[in-house]
């Protein structure tokens, strides 16, 4: 009898007959980095990693893929001199996200494999020396350490590796900084001539706490820089609003000056009329003065409005350029509240004064 079993070919989905095939899957960097659902023909409690869901293969229907997937390539940070691509292509499949309700052979095989690959993501360099796999930790002092072999089902080692890897790689924000801080502190804590697997569960927790403390200090420093940038932004915007307000005052001042000129011209004609010099009041020179005054007022107002409009256009273009470059850390909503709204309100006040001045 020939029995043919067909496995559905779904991108990101892997079907395994045996739990031991998990180790084979994790050995393939391409397959493990792309896997999002792994179905195993074994009765076990499902669990999930940062990028993959492990569940029982008991149905042809595929569940929805995990929503948020964090899959960071540690080869960006770890230098691999073995020539065999020992460093994993991604970390997501090795970092535990949800713990199974009960232990199983499937989970033990996965956890043992994760304990073999995660250490290669938490060192600075890896190479072979006389047939022995070596790693280095670079910090206040550089440690050249034999990697060793992990003990099977070492729960303390697994827990320490998961805690460190989750802090460094489970969030894509500032991974390089957290990686550098952790390896730096681990190098500080590491004793001489100790295998990596033997000492990691003892040294990693303290190094992780020190790295977290250093990272919080880094965030506080970043917060200071952010507050300084916001202060500079507030100062720059205050100057912009002041310039618009100055233009409004200048426009109103121009109105009063021109109004005084117009009144002087009109009063000259009125004075001639009251002095019973109607012919002089209606003479060509007086009409020329009145027309000249009107033309002067028109030209003066036009030049003032055009100059202000050009200045405001240049200022808006300038704000658009330096705003994107200097304050890219702000959200669009913050930019609108902190920058755009105050300037728009001051510009609206200027426009109202402009309409009144033109009307008068």
For the biggest sheet, the summary is:
5 strands, mixed
Mean pLDDT: 80
**Order of helical and strand elements:** EHHEEEEEHEEEHHHHHH
Number of helical stretches of at least 4 residues: 9
> Strand order within the widest sheet?
1-2-4-3-6
Dominant shape: elongated
Report the end-to-end length measured between terminal Cα atoms: 103 Å
Ranges with pLDDT <50 over ≥5 residues?
none
Estimate the helix proportion, in percent: 55-70%
Alpha-carbon Rg, integer: 37 Å
Explain how this protein is built.
This protein has 360 residues and is α/β, with parallel strands linked by helices. Helix content is 58%, strand content 10%. It is built from 9 helices and 9 strands. The protein has helices at 21-27, 29-34, 105-117, 155-169, 175-189, 196-274, 278-281, 284-326, 332-359, and strands at residues 13-16, 37-40, 47-49, 53-56, 79-80, 96-98, 125-129, 132-137, 143-146. The strands form 2 sheets. It has a 5-stranded mixed sheet, with no helix packed on it. The protein has a 4-stranded mixed sheet with strand order 5-7-8-9. β3 and β4 (53-56) form a beta hairpin. The longest helix has 79 residues, at 196-274. It starts with 12 loop residues before the first strand and ends with a helix.
Helices, strands, pairings?
Elements: E1 13-16, H1 21-27, H2 29-34, E2 37-40, E3 47-49, E4 53-56, E5 79-80, E6 96-98, H3 105-117, E7 125-129, E8 132-137, E9 143-146, H4 155-169, H5 175-189, H6 196-274, H7 278-281, H8 284-326, H9 332-359
